[in-house]
Amino acid sequence: MDFSSFVTSLGTSLVIFALLMLAFTWLQRKPGNAVIYYPGRILRGLDPLEGRKRTRNPLAWIKEAVGASEAAVVAAAGVDAAAYLVFLSSVLAILVFSGIILLPVLLPVAATDNGAQSTTGSNSSGTFKNLDKLAMGNVQEKSPRLWAFLLGVYWVSFVTYYVLWKAYKHVLNMRAGAKSSPEVKPEEFTVLVRDIPAAPPGQSMKDHVDSFFQALHPETFYRSMIVTDNKKANKIWEELEGYRKKLARTEVVYAESKTTSKPEGERPTNRIGFLGLVGEKVDTINHCNEKINELLPKLEAEQEITVREKQKAAALVFFNSKPAAISAAQTIHSQKIDTWTVMEAPEPRQVLWTNLPRKFYERQIRSFVVYGIVFLTVFFYMIPITFVSAFTTLKNLKKYLPFLKKIVAQPEIKTVLEAFLPQIALLVFMALLPTLLVFLSKEEGIPSESHAVRAASGKYFYFVVFNVFLGVTIGGALFDSLKTIINHPKQVITLLGSSLPKSATFFLTFVALKFFVGYGLELSRLVPLIIFHLKKRFLCKTEAEVKEAWAPGDFGYATRVPNDMLIITIVLCYSVIAPIIIPFGVVYFGLGWLVARNQALKVYVPNYESNGRMWPHLHARIIASLILYQITMFGYIGILRKFYYAPFLIPVIVSSFVFAYVCKKHFYLAFLNTPLEVACRGTKEIPNMESIYTAYIPPCLGTERLEDDDQFEDARSFSLKTAP
């Protein structure tokens, strides 16, 4: 990519962002679009425009986002969203403090070196000379000037340590504040028990669990709920709900058909065969009522069978005080590791019921198998990633698609293709992964949705680092490189150091495309807006369908966090080689913080709340990116620049491992388990325990009748008030 292509890419991205900002400013003022731009406020029962002045200023949202307190963010989107914002602001602080020293020091050091620039050290294989003069590749081999770049690695590292330590303490205190809130939450009085041994002859599983915990916790044990096999009941319930929705929709259609000239209207009909295309034609309203009346007794019968006969070796156990539940979750209840496994229960809305009964060793085996699949997928996925990055270059397009030669020969088309094609192809290709990774994570036997998201996020991080960062960096030489690594493992650092500078311009445009176009689309919400209006115009008939059409969802941490981590890895690894990338990283995370803060306050609604449980995961991944950066710089400075003092970087690499270890020992246990001192700060009175119990009843087992202790009642609430 030459300099004109880079400027074209950057300028086009900036123009697109400006247009998206103007669209956002205009569209958000339309009353009919409030459900797209302010759904979070609407669902909380607030006026979308409360406290806002009508203005045509496209930057007014920035003032609102910056002016909101962290408490307001927590109230609107939860602790998880606030922790994610801390993550963005922490990375922003790392890059700003690093850039304060690196930019004014390293750029002049590189630019004023009069030595000839080596081919291997060029940031872009000799095609980007203007920026190459501002990079380490412009410094002569063995030059004393390399000391400045070596010390720059130390500066970035210690800035990262300081910022991450402060951020860890802040999120820990924020989590403790949420955990000690006087608001009663069902999960704080509940523990999840797995690997329950078989009940003695003549004793039910419920009696078995009750007697075990009653003996160990005689004063605080309340009752237990045995996990059951709900597959059949859930299938009937979903079918029943489907007919109820269809009936509501059909009644609206029938009401709309009544006119002055035809007051009786036209009753809707449908065929009951395959996809409603074949079979007997029936009156839709009558058919839905018949199916509902048929399924209701069927569901009630299946509920009774499920509760009494389909009990599994897992349970939820309830205690009448928060400290008692926390103590029980952190106590070893059995001499054997594979029986009576007790842990803090997840929120009712994020329980993965089918995973709870999985046995201890089954979970271990599943975990090994899943990570084996992930490893193989990472390895083999690198082949198409490298193919995409290599094939979408202009040279290869001419080579493999000769009929495009005349088209790409046009200067304007050539410039646009060079600027955008590889980056867009890579973004589209990587968008196919998240569904697979979430599925694999749940197959491990993980008990909660938030845990599955964290696991999928970790797997996606491996993908983006190895397949995007390393795949693009090593590029078309992948297979030769793999052969070199296998035959000479010690050359991996040399390979990475020699390949990294050649991809600098690709990643500059990649980062620019991500923050300008990516954040512009997220803020303007053009795609959700178009989809909503199409659904409302052609598909939605009932209020429930309209609400479902504009439901905003949550942040989508499983994909959002790894993408941010990729940018961190890119910017850190190039921060000393080509410091000019630091401002791009600052804009990405600065703009990302503003956009995410706006979306947290007005748009996204959390699907679950884990009280910042993802923070240790975020912290560990930043440290992993830092270590990769340090190792890369060791290879680049020592081997390519032939600087004899490169081994002075070894202590800083070791210090990163030490820092990660100290942080884990100092902070992690308070995230893994709720400290007893935090639990004791909360509710003192005994809450409404029956409400806490019923909050965990799956919807498919809900009923309006309460016949005995084994019969569930309907409960969908996840945040309860203390009983008087």
UniProtKB/TrEMBL annotation:
Where does it localize? Membrane
Which UniProt keywords are listed?
Ion channel, Ion transport, Membrane, Transmembrane, Transmembrane helix, Transport
Which stretches make up the CSC1/OSCA1-like N-terminal transmembrane domain?
A: 5-166
Task: Tell me which residues make up the CSC1/OSCA1-like 7TM region domain.
Answer: 366-636
Q: Where is the CSC1/OSCA1-like cytosolic domain?
A: 189-355
Q: Name one Pfam family in it.
A: RSN1_TM
User: What membrane topology does the UniProt entry give?
Assistant: Multi-pass membrane protein
Q: Does this UniProt record's set of keywords contain Membrane?
A: yes
Q: Which GO terms describe its cellular component?
A: plasma membrane
The record's InterPro entries line, in alphabetical order, gives: Csc1-like, CSC1/OSCA1-like_7TM, CSC1/OSCA1-like_cyt, CSC1/OSCA1-like_N
GO MF term set: calcium-activated cation channel activity
Which residues span the membrane? 6-27, 84-107, 146-165, 368-391, 420-440, 460-479, 506-532, 566-594, 614-636, 643-662
Q: Which family does it belong to?
A: Belongs to the CSC1 (TC 1.A.17) family.
What is the name of the protein in this document?
CSC1-like protein ERD4
Its source organism is: Musa troglodytarum
